[in-house]
Amino acid sequence: MDxxxxxxxxxxxxxxxxxxxNWRTSRPKxxxxxxxxxxxxxxxxxxxxxxxxxxxxxxxxxxxxAPTTPRPTTPSPKPSEGPSVVVDLVRVERAxxxxxxxxxxxxxxxxxxxxQLNSMSRxxxxxxxxxxxxxxxxxxxxxxxxxxxGNRDRSVRIIDMKxxxxxxxxxxxxxxxxxxxxxxxxxxxxxxLDEDNPQARTVINKxxxxxxxxxxxxISLKRDEDITFQVLAKTLKHYCEFSLVLDVLDGGTxxxxxxxxxxxxxxxxxxxxxxxxYGYPITDYATYQDMYVGGLLNLENDGKWRREPPKGxxxx
Length: 316
Description:
It is a single chain. By secondary structure, the protein is an alpha+beta fold. 14% of the residues lie in helices and 33% in strands. The termini are far apart. The chain is elongated. The strands form 4 sheets. The chain has a 6-stranded mixed β-sheet with strand order 1-4-11-7-8-9, with no helix packed on it. Strands 3, 5, 10, 12, 13 and 14 form a 6-stranded mixed β-sheet that branches. A 4-stranded mixed β-sheet has the order 2-6-17-18, with no helix packed on it.
């Protein structure tokens, strides 16, 4: 069936308006397409872009913050705990009949000083103190008594004792010689300062020494438990100043406990020697700058000290 046309139906059609060929370009331009807006945008964007590029270039070279040191996981001992062991006593001892002293320099006693020395009991502690206060040094060996005490609620263990010597030529200042017929004392530990690396050795007597003391045993101390060391240090070749150090194992940590003579080093000296006609070493008295004799060398004066100029032969 044929449908009626628009004209038959009375519908009037209007013609499509004709646009000019350049109608797209003849329309008014939007603001962002205008030349001034483009120039302003470029002027703003360029510095921003340059800043971003500079930041990206410099960023890799910015130093990283220094790493922080982690805190130790093992707690430090409380300050109130103090040292692992406490040194209760340090005393340089001397046999009551020890006959000889050596001074580092010439010692010229006045008549009053010599009378004062001779007024004291021979070989007494008072006389020993008087001589030590003026610089007297033990010859051949020196005895040191040391008492240490544990200072922890747990046990601590002394595993070694070391000596720190500094040695030179024997002293040749002034010799005090007063021989007797007395015996020698025994001690428990000994250091031979003439050895390259002196070790704490077992001492049976002054002439018989054993092996390393701490090689076969250690010493455990609880709180307020103490131990007494009798230490002998000897030399036949040098003058030595030295201190001692205890190695103490405290809760898995090895700590050192220094020991000296109340802030000063311990001292001991050899005597200079020469060979007699049989090849045996004897004291070379001529090397001393001054000399005092007593005991068996001054029996006519009840063994008191008297000055005698040094000679190449033993005093009589």
